[in-house]
Write a structure and sequence with these properties.
By secondary structure, the protein is of the alpha+beta class. The protein has 1 helix and 7 strands. It has a single domain, classed as SH3 type barrels (Roll). Strands 1, 2, 3, 4, 5, 6 and 7 form a 7-stranded antiparallel sheet that branches. The longest helix is centred in the last third of the chain and has 13 residues.
Length: about 120
């Protein structure tokens, strides 16, 4: 299983795997449903990005995200790897209320570690 793989659940529901590959040893995967845009899905542009999959437009619904047992996901039927920025923006909007800038990715990162006095 890999980040951005698409799986079809038993009920025919499509989900995109949005969990970091670094966490592949966990028993569950963080998945987000994909629904056809022809269905009623309450589009919030930044939150519910539309992407083409298997010849049809689907909306990614982060507000419906869930943890799912990796054994029940089965074999991937496709990938959304090319949509990584749109998916990341939608997840950022859901969690933090903002989106990433549409600029090329930086190869440098910066973080500060808080230390306790004493």
């Amino acid at each position: 299983m890999a980040k951005f793989d698409v799986h079809r659940l038993g009920e025919g529901i499509l989900v995109g795997d949005c969990q970091a590959d670094l966490l592949s040893d966990l028993a569950t995967r963080f998945v987000v449903p994909l629904v056809l845009t022809s269905e009623s899905w309450g589009n919030v542009r930044r939150l519910d990005p539309v992407m083409s999959f298997s010849g049809a437009d689907h909306a990614l619904l982060p507000k419906e995200a869930m943890s799912f047992d990796r054994r029940e996901l089965g074999v991937p039927i496709g990938s959304l790897t090319e949509q990584d920025l749109a998916i990341g923006n939608a997840l950022d909007m859901m969690i933090s209320g903002f989106r990433r800038p549409q600029t090329p990715r930086s190869t440098k990162s910066s973080c500060q570690v808080a230390t306790s006095p004493g």
